[in-house]
Design brief:
Shape of chain B: globular
Shape of chain A: globular
Number of domains of chain B: 1
Keywords (chain B): Cytoplasm, Nucleus, Proteasome
Distance between the termini of chain B: 48 Å
Number of helices of chain B: 5
Pfam family, one (chain B): Proteasome
Radius of gyration of chain B: 20 Å
Number of strands of chain B: 14
Distance between the termini of chain A: 53 Å
GO biological process, one term (chain B): proteolysis involved in protein catabolic process
Number of strands of chain A: 14
Radius of gyration of chain A: 20 Å
Number of helices of chain A: 5
Structural class of chain B: alpha+beta
Function (chain B): Non-catalytic component of the proteasome.
Order of helices and strands of chain B: EEEEEEEHHEEEEHHEEEH
Oligomer: heterodimer
CATH topology of chain B: Glutamine Phosphoribosylpyrophosphate, subunit 1, domain 1
Largest interface: A-B, 46 and 55 residues
Order of helices and strands of chain A: EEEEEEEHHEEEEHHEEEH
Protein name (chain B): Proteasome subunit beta
Helix content of chain A: 25-40%
Helix content of chain B: 25-40%
CATH class of chain B: Alpha Beta
Largest sheet of chain B: 8 strands, antiparallel
Amino acid sequence: MDLNMNVNAPHSMGTTIIGVTYNGGVVLGADSRTSTGMYVANRASDKITQLTDNVYVCRSGSAADSQIVSDYVRYFLHQHTIQVGQPATVKVAANLIRLLSYSNKNMLQTGLIVGGWDKYEGGKIYGIPLGGTLIEQPFAIGGSGSSYLYGFLDQAWKEGMTKDEAERLVVKAVSLAIARDGASGGVVRTVIINSEGVTRNFYPGDKLQLWHDELEPQNSLLDILNAPPSPEPMNI
Amino acid sequence: MQFMASKQPENSLLGPESDSQRTLYPYVTGTSVVALKYKDGILMAADMGGSYGSTLRYKSVERMKPIGKHSLLGASGEISDFQEILHYLDELILYDNMWDDGNSLGPKEVHNYLTRVMYNRRNKFNPLWNSLVLGGVKNGQKYLGTVSMIGVNFEDNHVATGFGNHLARPILRQEWHENLSFEDGVRLLEKCMRVLLYRDRSAINKLQIAKITEEGSTISQPYSLKTYWEFSAFANPAQGAVGS
């Protein structure tokens, strides 16, 4: 199994990304692992990228492709904001992403989730998978880790959640995907967008809830071996 | 309607795929094993993951097993092939015991046997898809060796398989020294395993450390390592370059 590590493999964000609407805005979430083949090139990347003050995008797939698409759209949205004289709507941002993804579909390998808040429509999530389809959804999942979340979200997502419920759902989902997807890992980042503004949160890997077959982290085996012995069970 | 047959390239030297059993590609795999010699014997570490492609499917796989009285075997690669090797070794040890002559196979002999098995399978284009680490102590002599799926074998003061070669061995080259204490050896292995946990996609946070000395072998209970994420650069990585 000692196949030579392919250091020339394209940087790909294996990834788990998710966007969820709630009664007042949206919560976007993502893991932080960027891999080159089987090597983790960056264990703390930021996959939730700003497009405007009120619209962010979750990036998955090829790191290079997703960065360049979001850079172009940020640039276009900046010009658009000046022309229109007010903040861009989430729908416009999503459509610009779609335009680039669709017209370059043969060359790009990136799945994106656009989420934000504007005064006309409130909180909105748009999924733009490979190929450049634009689809508005109450919640969206993407990236390799999303395979493990379809059943979970079908059961757990509810209409009209509060901000805290939505964020907890997002953190739980990304954390579950990280537990099973080798291409996802690291920390869970969330971005909450509503009428009041934008809040970024950071949940380090060791602060997440433990799932099945996972154990409480220790400093060292030596601590376990040197720990005082647990009390004898009672003989009834 | 045609069934999708699995294809070989036109210039392949491999025979018909219907040939009995051959591992063409691995299915359930274990990642790195790391081991080092210390004062009293050998210390070996491996996580308990069995990956199924990119899915972390099984999280309680024991990838290190004692062999006879004097050896410890750790394996990475295809788990079913590892189980087959354990079966061969069971027979080897059984026959050795049946001689009942007071002699028992030491780690050097077991390593040599494994090397022959792996190399002969490779020559028949039907490899056992594993990288093995064999460590042990007999009559005060410490032994630590490794064999790959194509039969490459050697011994050293510290060895590793897979990603461990790239990430753990450099650390060991710097920090290993003769006559490490048990505590220092464990800490050194944990340092290696933590780096692997950060940087190897197929690593999981549940490992065992095994020890073998003249007295015998023990494999620790499964446990997890603490990891470190609280760096300011991690909280805000794209500060200087939005969108990166």
